[in-house]
Amino acid sequence: MSDELKVTGSSKRERYESLYPQLQALLLGEDDLIANMANVAAALKEGFGFFWVGFYRVSGDQLVLGPFQGPVACNRIAYGKGVCGTAWKEGRVVVVPDVDQFPGHIACSSLSRSEIVVPVWSGNRVIAVLDVDSDQLDAFDETDARYLNKVCDLLDGKKRTTV
Ligand code: SME
Fold this sequence. Notes:
CATH topology: Beta-Lactamase
Bound molecules: methionine sulfoxide
Strand order of the largest sheet: 3-2-1-6-5-4
Oligomer: single chain
CATH superfamily: GAF domain
């Protein structure tokens, strides 16, 4: 495995397109979920310079902090609470252009201004969420939703295809 990722392109779409096959290759050889989450968080942080990238894993009726890159964050989030708990409960991607406008947003850092949360599925069950925060307003859109969904699908061994 190369120890370096190369993320190229000027548009967001091009950057995701260049990162995705590298992530696919990286995750293909490993079936440990935590190791794969750790590398996904590192790759997204390094490739895009997001303020915070990380996973919260489902544990009973809570989400518990998992592998992440960025400032320290809240350990636990209840079902249905905050952006993460909402994405888990509703089983959908939640894009928040301005965190101050999202009722119940949980502020782990006052520097976070916008956010996207993507459920991680195993079969028909949400087992975790991927949370990405930006220190800029309105940083996330449909392109992020589409590619981050694809990236989260790589964490489900059954969906991983060979490259
Ligand atoms: N803002 C999230 C909490 C997690 S941190 O942003 C890392 C939420 O409202 O669920």
